Amino acid sequence: MSTEPETTEDAEPGTPGADTTAGTPRNTGEDVGHADTRSPDGDPSGDLSGDEATVTGDGTDAEAVAGTEAAAGAEPAEGAAQLSEAAAELAAQRVERERIERRKAEKQAPIEAGTKLSGTAADLLAAVRAVESGEKPVSTAFREPAPEPRRAPQEPVPRPRPVAAATAPAPTAAPEAVGAVRAVLAAGGAPEALAAQVVAVLGEGADDQLREDPWQLLRVPGVRPEQADGFSRELLGAECGPDDERRGMALTLWLLEQAAVAGHTALDAPQLTAALSQRSVPDPDAAVQSALVEGEALVFQDALDTAPPAPAPEDDADDDAEEPQERPVRILIGLERYALAEESLADGLARVMNSVPKEDGSAAHWERAAAAAPRSAGELIRAVATHGLVLHTGGDASRAEAAALLRAARGLGLRGWAATHTAVGRDGFPARETGAPADGPADGAATGVATVAGLLSGSEGPGRDTDGALDLDVLVVLDAPQLDVETAAMLAESLPDGARLVLSGDPGVLWSAGPGRVFADLLAARACPQVASRTPDPGPIGELVSGVGIGELNQVEAPGKEVVIVPVRDAGEAVHRTVQLVADSVPRAIGIPAEQTQVITPGHGGAVGTRALNTALKERLNPGPGRFGGFDPGDRIVYSPAPGRTLPGHVVKADAEGLHLECSGAPVVVPKERVEQAVRHGWALTAHQAVGLRWPAAVVVLPGDAAAALTRPWVYTAFGRAERHLSVVHGVEQALPHAVAEVPQKPRTTRLQALLKAQAPAQG
C-alpha cells in the first residue's frame, strides 16, 4: 500500500482546470507538481486572454501579416507606372524588413505596466530574452522558484453538523442488474432481498456469475455453506455434488473469511484442510490449491524458531560432513488482503525503528524534560528520545504518562499528536496535560489529539506533507490493543522518516475486533523498548481489576459501595435485577443517573443477552412504539460506522433522510436502509463493544449460560469500564474465579511476530 500522492496530468495553460501559477512557466517539460493558484474570483492567475494571446512563435502578428499581404498583392492604380515583378518583390521585402526592425525595437524597449504582456506571459518572454542574450542558462531561467517553507495548517474549530453514515455505502447498482440477479435468486430458492448485496459483491454480470458458479453466493456476508449448497442444487440439478471444484474453492475462501472475523490473519494449512473435510469436501488439498492458483489466497512458510540452526556434530575427518539441520516451519494459508497488510505493517515498523529520529534538540533537553516528569513518565520520555518505536503498557491511569510525553515533545518544538479510537477518548484526553490552556477551546489543534480514523482520513489532525506522509514528528496511539492489522499498517505507512511512534495501551484488555493482535505481537517480539507504567488505577475498582489482570479474583474493601456483588439464580432474575440496578438502586444509593450507567453482558443472544436486556431497559427507561426501525426519540444507542468501531449516543428524531443521532456531541444521520445494520440499542453492550470506553457506573451481568464464554481478558475488560461504581450481577458461581485464574485470551494465528523477528533483533 503506497502513500505516494496520486499524480494527475496537468491541463494545458488557458484550458479549464489548468494549473498555472503567476511567474511560473508551466510548459517547460518539468513535473513541478504545484497546487492550482487562482485569483480571488476563481480565475487561474496565469491565463492569457485578449491581445496577449495573439503573439505567435515567429514574432509576427495578424495585423503585420495582413499589411504584408496588402503590400505584396495590391493592385496598381490606373495611370501609375507599372512596376516589374522583381521591383515589386524588392518593395515587399523592404516593407517586411522595416516591420521586423520596428518589432525588434519594440521588444527591446521596456514594457509599460497595463499594456502589452503581463503576468506569466511577460515573465516567460523575459526568460526567453535572458537565455537568448546569454545572461542565464536554460536550467536557471526556466526553474521553478523555491517554495516557501511549509507551515502546519491551523485546524479550524470544528462545528457540529449533521454527517451521513460514511461507511459501507449503499449499493448503487443499476435496477436492471439487480432485477437480473433477483431472477436468478428466485430460481434457486434464495431470498430475493439479497440481490443488491450480490451485485455489490460480484459486480458487473453478477447474474451470469451466479449461473456459472452458484457457490459465489457464499461471498455475500451472512450466507452459510448449507444455504449456498441448497441454492446450487436448485440451479445445477444433477450436476451439483460435494466434489465440485467450485464448491471446494468457495468453501476455502469462506473459511478464511470466517477466520478473519475471529481475528486470525492466516490459518495453519492442516487446520484449514481439516475444516474443509468437516464440510464434506472430498479432496481438501485440491480445494486449497485451486484457491492458491486463482490468486484468491496466499501460502507462507514461517519459521517456528528464528535462531540459527545448531551446527552438525563433528565426526572423524574421514566421515562425510553432515547436512545442516533444517529449521522447522509451519505452512500458513491466508487471504491476500490481510497477508499483505501484515507484511506491510512489518516493513513500516522496521522503517520506523531503523530511521534516525529527527533533530529536536540535545539529549540534555530530553533529559531535563524527563527529570521534570513523574517516574514512569520520565522513563517513557527517555525511551522516546532515542528510539523510533516504543511500547508503553499500563491501565487507564497511565494515560497521564502519555500526555506528559506529548507535552514534553511539544515543549521541544516537535509536532506531537495523540490518537484515540473514539471521540469519547479524544475529548477525555485532558488539555492541560498537552500544554493547551485548560479553559481554551477543546479542538484538536489546541490539544493535539485526534481519532485514528480522523487522522488517517485527514478530517482531523495535522494533515499530510507534500510526500503524502502525516505532517508530524511524534505520534502516540492510545488504546493500542484495539489496532487491527490493516489500520496499523496504514498508520505505519503514513509516518514520515524520522518520526517517533509510541503505542500505548493495556495489554490485559480484549484484542481488536478486526484481524490481528498487533500490540500483543509487538510485545512478544521484543523488537523495541517497552516501558511499563508504575501508576496504579486508583480505588477499590482499580485494585479489583489489577488483581484480575494477574489471575486473581480478590475481595476488596469498598466502604463507599464502589463494588457490589448481586447474586442471582436464573435468567429472569438476572434481567429483573439489572433493570432495578440501572433505573433505581444505583441512582438512589450512589447518585449516578441511569444515562451514565452502562450494562455489559457476554453476548447479543440468549435470555440475558444485549437484545433481551435492551428490550427490558427500553420498556423501563424510554417506552415507545419503535416508530422507526424499532427506535424512538430519546433511545440510547450505539452506532457502528465500521466493523469494530462503536460510538455511543442517542436518537434525536427520524424523518425522510433517515435516523438522526447524536454521538459524542456530533449529529449523525443514518440512512433508512443502513439502520438495521449499523444501529443497536445501547443500554446494554458486549465487552467487545465497550472496550476503550468508560462510564461513571457499570453493571456487569454474568448469567449462568455465559459461563463457557468467560475469559480473563473479558472479565478484566468488563470490570475496568467502571470509574466510580461497579455492580456484578453474578449467576455463574465458580466459573468466574476459574475464568480469571485459568482461561487466557483466545489464541489468534498471525504472522507479525515472525516477520518482526526476521527484521529486527530482540531486545532484552
Protein model, in words:
The protein is α/β, with parallel strands linked by helices and 764 residues long. Helix content is 39%, strand content 13%. It has 28 helices and 20 strands. The strands form four sheets. Strands 1-16-15-14-13-17 form a six-stranded mixed beta sheet. The protein has a six-stranded parallel beta sheet with strand order 7-6-8-9-5-10, sandwiched between helices. The protein has a five-stranded parallel beta sheet with strand order 11-20-19-12-18. Helix 20 packs parallel to helix 28. It is globular.
Features:
single chain, 764 residues, alpha/beta, six-stranded mixed beta sheet, six-stranded parallel beta sheet, 39% helix, globular, disordered N terminus
Task: Give a nutshell description of this structure.
The protein is an alpha/beta fold.
How far do the termini sit from each other?
32 Å
Cα gyration radius (Å): 35 Å
Q: What is the tally of helical segments?
A: 28
Number of strands: 20
Order of strands side by side in the largest beta sheet? Answer: 1-16-15-14-13-17
Which range does the strand content fall in?
Answer: 5-15%
